[in-house]
């Protein structure tokens, strides 16, 4: 007992000694804490994002090892809804199968209207994942049917924003796209879609209000859903893949507009959810891995900075340590004090790093993936890893001077202080400082590369002008229009928009203002297959009203543009891009040629009346998109496209100097078409922001990292050389006494620093 009391008393004295030392050198302690915290926070944040993006399973899944992703998930590749139905009803290797897709809504609760992300899910999705609502119930099979009573299961965050409690939300209604949905359940907290993206609510996929409609549920050429399945016990992913591939090929032979030889060889991939998300070719994946490496560089710089500070302090403390040893202090006692001091600073650094990482994680996810990924939770593995690096660095650099003094006789340490300082340690300090500067320069160079790439990407000629272009999203189908009644509404809407002050041109499309949205089969009479050189997702087909291409400022190369007579007469006429004309009619005048859209041979052939310039799908695209523009309401528009894709975007070009048109444009469209449930207006150049997100993220984040690294390096240089000057005061004083000028003494120090 007396021994324990003595040990505790000794520990108390050591702790008081450590606090006094830290209070005497607050600048050094603060520098060590902030340096370590900056490096730790960088690594913890980036590793959390990468772990969530590539490895983590969605929260709450029952037996996640048996839940698999089926079919394509990466990029824009998806599966058709009939293929999901085939797997659900026929797959013997799967216990259950679910399908899902996303759609953005304007959700109205009472008088509050907010944007919300909806998960369109089959009634089998939540049971397949093994997730049950915390309140209420899930979607039943009878509610997952066209025309069923509209029901919705809301997320916990959505519930917290609009209702007092889970029980209070049940039975209440949410208005989505003009339809009242009754809340039947509340999802567990931190629930995410299988791809780890956040959702506000789940609606039955077959009864969801969105532009796809019934045609999307039966058309095998319309690929828009992702599929998940639960393996039967003892069944491997390879066996499930063989089973799914057989079902897919059998169901699509002679049905889908694809090469039948290729179809016979197609396989349906079955893999874990993490493997499905782990697309190394995506820009987000590349930038996440790249930034993680740079975060490790920042941690290395921070450790080098801390090491140089502690080594420099150890040099200054050598005389004091030698006195303690001469007075009988043991190495263990000195090491204990040093470890207490280091431990205090490391713990403080970890606390600061955790706070910074929590705040930075949410911001980084927003920048990295545009809120399509949940903010990563703090990962104990990355925290432990970074803390271990910091502890090893600090302990090594703090204990090393003690070991050196203990091994050296006190007389030698006290009598040769100046010589040992200048000869033995200056090389180590030089190396540590040089390492910090070198790594900082590397980060600055990388930031410059990203800035240059961002500048080049924003200067790429996309083939259409995004400046002074706004796009209004409308949903005529949700407003109750059909393919026969929509054309009148389209004409009224476009005419009203053109009359607004400052509007130069306006037009509507049934697809999107950006190329590559719709890709139905396109055939040229007399040709059996697609031309060589065409990409899998080409050609892009859309029906447009007159004024659409003028609003986008797409140049006319040959022939003429579409007119109002083409629309009112339902003429089977079309425009093509230069790439389309070059691929389908090489060396032949495309004007007067015709193309047929869709699978049916009874659909009229559309006559080409003009050729327009190519548009790029992204700033990095190697070439333009092969595009076909049909006149709105054209007889050449296939029935499935006419029924499914009504007018959905109005492109509006405004004159220079015209103030914000958003509210006026919204009100005009709602006045002309009162049945519209909502109108969203956005600047078209936001598209370029999305396309250049990776460069912008790299430029911003790496720029921040570079700034932190240079600040750490500069602080390390200043601290180390200030300490070096302080330890050389005797030497510099002697040189001054012997006649050295102040500028000579200054140059002696500056030269070494340079």
Could you give a short account of the major beta sheet? 7 strands, mixed
- Radius of gyration from the alpha-carbon trace, in angstroms: 34 Å
What count of helical segments does DSSP give?
26
Total E-strand runs: 22
Portion in beta strands: 15-25%
Structural class: alpha+beta
Q: Which geometry do the CA atoms define?
A: globular
What is the strand and helix layout of this fold?
Blueprint: H1 2-24, H2 26-54, E1 67-70, E2 79-80, H3 81-90, E3 94-109, E4 112-121, H4 125-129, E5 135-136, E6 151-154, H5 156-162, H6 166-169, E7 173-176, E8 179-186, E9 201-204, H7 213-218, E10 223-231, H8 237-252, H9 260-265, E11 270-272, H10 273-277, H11 283-326, H12 331-369, H13 380-407, H14 410-415, H15 417-424, H16 426-458, E12 469-473, H17 486-498, E13 503-509, E14 522-523, E15 540-544, H18 548-552, E16 556-559, H19 564-568, E17 573-577, H20 578-584, E18 594-597, E19 606-612, E20 627-631, H21 639-644, E21 649-654, H22 662-672, E22 680-683, H23 686-691, H24 693-727, H25 729-737, H26 742-753
Parallel strand pairs: 4-9, 6-8, 15-20, 17-19
Antiparallel strand pairs: 1-10, 1-11, 2-10, 3-4, 3-7, 3-10, 5-8, 6-9, 7-8, 12-21, 12-22, 13-21, 14-18, 16-19, 17-20, 18-19
Helix pairs in contact: 1-12, 2-11, 2-12, 2-13, 2-24, 3-8, 11-12, 11-13, 11-16, 11-24, 12-13, 16-24, 17-22
């Amino acid at each position: 007992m007396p021994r324990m009391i003595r040990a505790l008393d000794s520990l108390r004295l050591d702790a008081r000694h450590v606090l006094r030392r830290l209070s005497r050198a607050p600048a050094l302690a603060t520098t060590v804490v902030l340096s370590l915290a900056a490096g730790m926070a960088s690594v913890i944040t980036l590793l959390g994002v990468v772990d969530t993006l590539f490895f983590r399973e969605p929260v709450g899944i029952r037996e996640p090892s048996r839940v698999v992703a089926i079919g394509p998930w990466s990029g824009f590749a998806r599966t058709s809804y009939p293929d999901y139905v085939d797997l659900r009803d026929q797959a013997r290797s799967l216990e259950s199968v679910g399908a899902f897709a996303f759609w953005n809504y304007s959700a109205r609760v009472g008088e509050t209207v907010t944007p919300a992300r909806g998960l369109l899910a089959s009634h089998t999705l939540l049971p397949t994942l093994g997730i049950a609502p915390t309140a209420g119930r899930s979607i039943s099979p009878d509610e997952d049917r066209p025309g069923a009573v509209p029901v919705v299961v809301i997320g916990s965050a959505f519930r917290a924003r609009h209702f007092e409690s889970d029980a209070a939300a049940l039975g209440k209604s949410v208005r989505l796209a003009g339809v009242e949905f009754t809340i039947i359940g509340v999802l567990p907290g931190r629930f995410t879609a299988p791809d780890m993206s956040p959702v506000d609510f789940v609606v039955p996929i077959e009864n969801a209000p969105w532009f796809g409609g019934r045609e999307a549920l039966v058309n095998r050429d319309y690929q828009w859903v992702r599929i998940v399945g639960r393996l039967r016990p003892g069944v491997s992913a390879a066996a499930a893949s063989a089973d799914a591939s057989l079902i897919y090929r059998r169901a699509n032979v002679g049905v889908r507009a694809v090469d039948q030889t290729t179809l016979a060889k197609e396989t349906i991939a079955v893999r874990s959810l993490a493997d499905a998300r782990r697309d190394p070719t995506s820009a987000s994946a590349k930038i996440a891995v790249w930034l993680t490496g740079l975060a490790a560089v920042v941690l290395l710089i921070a450790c080098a900075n801390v090491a140089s500070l502690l080594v420099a302090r150890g040099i200054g403390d050598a005389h004091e340590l030698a006195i303690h040893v001469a007075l009988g202090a043991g190495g263990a006692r000195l090491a204990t004090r040093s470890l207490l001091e280091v431990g205090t600073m490391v713990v403080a650094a970890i606390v600061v790093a955790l706070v910074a990482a929590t705040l930075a994680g949410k911001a980084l996810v927003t920048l990295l993936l545009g809120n399509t990924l949940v903010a990563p939770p703090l990962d104990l593995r990355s925290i432990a890893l970074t803390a271990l690096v910091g502890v090893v660095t600090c302990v090594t650099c703090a204990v090393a001077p003690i070991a050196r003094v203990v091994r050296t006789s006190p007389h030698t340490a006290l009598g040769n202080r100046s010589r040992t300082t200048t000869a033995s340690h200056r090389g180590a300090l030089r190396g540590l400082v040089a390492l910090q500067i070198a790594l900082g320069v590397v980060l600055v160079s990388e930031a410059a590369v990203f800035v240059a790439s961002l500048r080049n990407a924003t200067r790429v000629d996309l083939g259409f002008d995004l400046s002074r272009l706004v796009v209004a999203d409308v949903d005529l189908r949700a407003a109750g229009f059909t393919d026969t009644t929509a054309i009148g509404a389209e004409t009224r809407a476009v005419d009203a928009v053109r009359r607004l002050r400052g509007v130069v041109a306006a037009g509507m499309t049934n697809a999107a203002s950006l190329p590559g949205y719709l890709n139905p089969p396109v055939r040229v009479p007399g040709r059996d297959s697609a031309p060589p050189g065409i990409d899998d997702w080409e050609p892009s087909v859309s029906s447009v009203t007159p004024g659409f291409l003028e609003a986008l400022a797409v140049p006319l190369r040959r022939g003429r543009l579409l007119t109002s007579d083409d629309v009112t007469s339902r003429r089977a006429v079309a425009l093509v891009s230069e790439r389309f004309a070059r691929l389908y009619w090489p060396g032949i005048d495309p004007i007067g040629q015709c193309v047929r859209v869709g699978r049916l041979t009874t659909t009229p052939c559309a006559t080409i009346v003009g050729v327009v310039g190519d548009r790029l799908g992204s700033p990095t695209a190697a070439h333009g998109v092969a595009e076909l523009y049909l006149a709105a309401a054209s007889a050449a528009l296939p029935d499935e496209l006419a029924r499914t894709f009504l007018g959905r975007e109005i492109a509006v070009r405004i004159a220079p100097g015209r103030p914000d048109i958003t509210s006026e444009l919204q009100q005009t469209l709602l006045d002309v078409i009162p049945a519209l449930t909502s109108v969203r207006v956005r600047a078209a150049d936001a598209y370029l922001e999305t396309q250049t997100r990776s460069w912008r993220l790299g430029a911003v984040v790496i720029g921040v990292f570079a700034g932190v690294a240079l600040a750490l390096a500069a602080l390390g240089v200043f601290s180390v050389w200030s300490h070096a000057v302080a330890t050389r005061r005797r030497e510099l004083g002697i040189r001054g006494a012997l006649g050295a000028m102040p500028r000579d003494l200054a140059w002696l120090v500056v030269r070494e620093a340079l």
